[in-house]
Hints:
The complex is a heterodimer.
Chain A: H1 2-12, E1 14-19, E2 24-37, E3 40-45, E4 51-65, E5 73-85, E6 89-93, E7 97-99, H2 105-117, H3 123-145
Helix pairs in contact in A: 2-3
Chain B: H1 2-58, E1 75-81, H2 91-108, E2 112-118, H3 120-128, E3 135-137, H4 146-161, E4 167-177, E5 180-189, H5 204-210, E6 213-215, H6 218-294
Parallel strand pairs in B: 1-2, 1-4, 2-3
Antiparallel strand pairs in B: 4-5
Helix pairs in contact in B: 1-6, 2-3, 4-6
Amino acid sequence: xxxxxxxxxxxxxxxxxxxxxxxxxxxxxxxxxxxxxxxxxxxxxxxxxxxxxxxxxxxxxxxxxxxxxxxxxxxxxxxxxxxxxxxxxxxxxxxxxxxxxxxxxxxxxxxxxxxxxxxxxxxxxxxxxxxxxxxxxxxxxxxxxxx
Amino acid sequence: xxxxxxxxxxxxxxxxxxxxxxxxxxxxxxxxxxxxxxxxxxxxxxxxxxxxxxxxxxxxxxxxxxxxxxxxxxxxxxxxxxxxxxxxxxxxxxxxxxxxxxxxxxxxxxxxxxxxxxxxxxxxxxxxxxxxxxxxxxxxxxxxxxxxxxxxxxxxxxxxxxxxxxxxxxxxxxxxxxxxxxxxxxxxxxxxxxxxxxxxxxxxxxxxxxxxxxxxxxxxxxxxxxxxxxxxxxxxxxxxxxxxxxxxxxxxxxxxxxxxxxxxxxxxxxxxxxxxxxxxxxxxxxxxxxxxxxx
Lengths: 147, 295
């Protein structure tokens, strides 16, 4: 009886997978996932309509992970990438994902300052720098929120 | 005694060599396992990217992107992945042979070629054959990192987009299985256009893939996903090369250890025989002395 209850619990949430080029860094079930899409945050729970979206730089929040409290939040920083949302699964495909506990406020600020100090010439270089700046600011924001 | 002692000295030195090759074999085995784990872990990313590409293709969006354009080849780039170290059987020489073939082909077609080589062994061998290299990398060992491979990939993407190259070939050793690795030349740019999921299948598979929404649009996602898919394929080449190098070293060192074992056996036999004949000789001398005293 207890076993059937636990499988029912498992089926409630969404399966959340984070994949980077080197490895799969997370594969878990959660109640709710917040994603940093290119134009803002979007929350996904079980039964969300399937979509494929582009991610911006920002914070992934995994709420109510299996085996943790219902309102426990696990955070990651993702630097762009894609997300594929199925009926009960969220797959995040990104080139860089940093677990929340490894984020350091000072390191994030140093990265931002270093980027600010560089000069870019030419349209493409300027666009690349702006993109990098945006990612660095998102990293600082995510690191600050984790304090 | 001189001959026996020389044989013994040789036997001792072969024993030392066997110790070294045996250790190298064990190290290569451990490294191979680690490299293999990394390669397996990286497969998921490529597979999932491919799935999204299939979904986009199946959604019927016109798959048009500069990276998919096939242009007449006027300028090409070749990236050759070799090892930094030797003692790995035919691994490096196979790479050099394979790359000489493609470079020769480029020359006969009068295509200007940008040559990049990774690995000290490959650099030395191609230098010896008088081939000009534009880029040399010696930092990739048994654990290539994505962050190190990505800048190389991005520079190729830029060169392709700006028309500086029309094609990119990578020469590397593909890891098929532990018993089989093959030297291959793979064309990475232009990319192959994505196929819709399940080929031309209709019915449930087709319907299932069509109900995805795309944010902001399938074109915009395609624009981002194609470079990502190229980078992951390039990264896979580096991972495969690393795994294959370790396998090659493992096999070569195993053969060397076995060979040394055979050599030791042969030397031991000769040493024993030499010692025995020496003892026999001494006994004959003593006997001869005794006989002489009797008279």
